[in-house]
Amino acid sequence: MPKLVVINQGHHTTIQDLGRYHCSHIGLSQGGVSDLHAHCWGQKLLGNPSQNPSLEIVFGRIKLRAIGQVDCVLTGADCQAINATLGISLPQWQAFRLNDGDELHLSVPRRGLRTYLSVRGAFKLPSCLGSVATVERNQLGGLGEGKPLTVGDTLTIESNDQTKLIHTPQSVIPHYHSECLLRLIPTFQYQQLPAEVVQDILSSRYRISTNSNRMGIRLENSNTALSSSSNIGSIISEGIVCGAVQIPADGKPIILLQDRQTLGGYKKLGTVAFRDLPKLGQLKPGDHIRFQLTNLEVERQKQRAFYHFFEL
pTM of this prediction? Predict the structure, then answer.
């Protein structure tokens, strides 16, 4: 079987798939890819099901060596990948081949944060609760201990030889920007806020904090009306979903992500629309976002179309 060997782990690289759904009742985080759009396209280009795992590479700089022949796709943030053995640049959002001994080197992305490496076939990994997704806080997934990849790790690939390689349509390749508009589906707790606070939320420009991770994105420079409102406070803890926008006591919003806790006692403004969740996976500290209200039924239709296209 072909393999990929880690010769430089880069900043932070984990193995991810669609995550562990239906495990919140036992206190486990969902996990899974941060940018579902990039992940699913990488798998589709290689003829794989979307459930297959990919490498989620944060801020590039990873180096891998192929043992045997490996067909790959890189999606997400562009890290100017090269085949260092041949000294040639490698494409993004389309398939390429690594031959035995070839080294794949990634640089730091110019825009965006996370790059996804998919391989034709699937990484051979131990599954836990129906997933191989790495969740470090739960010590689950990956090569077995819920840890990021490190030098010397070897990933065995179960090949799929019946695959036709294709290219990604230009129309679906995203352009990652440091300014991002997020569509927000309001909750009933949002409706309880005073009109001036609602207006302040929608007109505010938030900065991504350096204290952000796969659990959540923390926003800075939040509005004073929101933080001082008497309606902002704790509630009885309840289940929380990916994209939920919590308002803690300091009034600085937190957008919850894949590795979030399963319960939360802060009020929620709403939930980031499904089609904008991949944007969250590409935001890095210093980037800025704004919120815009959206219609629930419109967003449901967009989500159904995505699920249908990728057969989720």
Answer: 0.94
Domains of the chain, by residue range, sit at 3-172, 179-310
Say what the pLDDT of residue 307 is.
96
Q: Mean pLDDT score of the chain, rounded to an integer?
A: 91
* Separation of alpha carbons 150 and 42, rounded Å: 23
Residue 6 has which token pair?
């880690």
Query: Does pLDDT of 197 surpass 80?
Result: no
Provide the edge-to-edge strand list for the sheet that holds 88-89: 88-89, 82-83, 103-105, 63-67, 3-8, 154-158, 122-123
Q: Quick one: DSSP state of residue 7?
A: E
pLDDT tens, position by position, 215-255: 999 999 755 555 555 456 678 888 899 999 998 877 788 99
CATH superfamily name and code, 179-310: Cyclophilin-like (2.40.100.10)
What residues form DSSP beta bridges with 116?
56, 75
Ordered strands of the 12-16 beta sheet = 12-16, 54-58, 114-119, 70-76, 95-98
175 vs 76: CA distance, rounded Å: 9
Exposed/middle/buried for 189, CB within 10 Å: 0-12, 13-18, 19+?
middle
Cβ atoms of 111 and 77 within 8 Å: the answer is yes
Q: Are 291 and 63 in contact (CB under 8 A)?
A: no
Residues contacting 268, CB < 8 A, separation 6+: 187, 189, 190, 240, 244, 245, 246, 247
CA distance 121 to 70: 9
